[in-house]
Amino acid sequence: MNNLTFIGSFPSANQCPNDERPEYAFIGRSNVGKSSFINTLSNRNALARVSKQPGKTQSINFFLVDENWFLVDLPGYGYAKVSKKMRVEWEHMVKTYLRTRTTISCIFQLVDISVPHQHIDIEFINWLGECGLPFVLLLTKADKAKEHEVEQNVEGLKAALGEYWEELPRMVLTSSNTKLGREEVLGIISDANEAFANY
Question: In terms of pLDDT, which residue wins out, 45 or 106?
């Protein structure tokens, strides 16, 4: 990731760029550490806005990477301090984008693995599966809990998903501080770009 260009923030899916290049969307609960991981992935300190107050990402943010693919930063779901009406509008915007964009190569859903899984994460994972959308789970904040606690939380997440899934989604353990998982995620994107080009 050498060249990054901010393309713009778009309030709805139908206003996003009309472009044939592949897109990689990042989404998660509003305090999952999404902005921090995007900054780690891009080797930038402030590509995505990091805040102690969840819910700062309020539009669909497009970044062009190496003139080759788009990194898309989506609003988080969950407990952001915004009105119920605003949360409903965000959910509609995000789900419309994810369902209708034919150039999405992969959705990266971030789940905080330093704490036990939450029902809202399971619901969103299952929604992605029901829609048949391609996605990978990024298990964030792996350095924020003791190793045995992280292992317990991973097993708990797998058990919860096992009630719905015959084959579990791919999972990548990550940390924004140690850059754990960064190379694996870049490898997933590289492989998907190659598949997209040959499609």
Answer: 106
User: Tokens 């990266």 appear where?
Assistant: 108
CA distance linking residue 189 with residue 66, whole number of Å: 13
Sequence-distant (6+) residues with CB within 8 A of 194 are: none
How many Cβ atoms from other residues are within 10 Å of residue 81's Cβ?
A: 9
> What is the distance between the alpha carbons of residues 140 and 28, in angstroms, rounded to a whole number?
10
Joined tokens for residue 46: 């402030």
At residue 166, what is the residue type?
E
DSSP result, 79-99: --SS-HHHHHHHHHHHHHHHH
Lowest mean pLDDT across 35-44, 76-85, 126-135, 148-157: 76-85
Angle value at C-alpha 70, between 190 and 171, nearest 5 degrees: 50
Stated as kind and residue range, the H or E segment containing 9 is strand 4-10
For residue 51, pLDDT over 60 is answered with no
Q: Cα(94)–Cα(31) distance, rounded to whole angstroms?
A: 17
Place of tokens 């080009």: 197
Name the 3-class secondary structure at 1: coil
- Give the percent of the chain with pLDDT over 70: 92
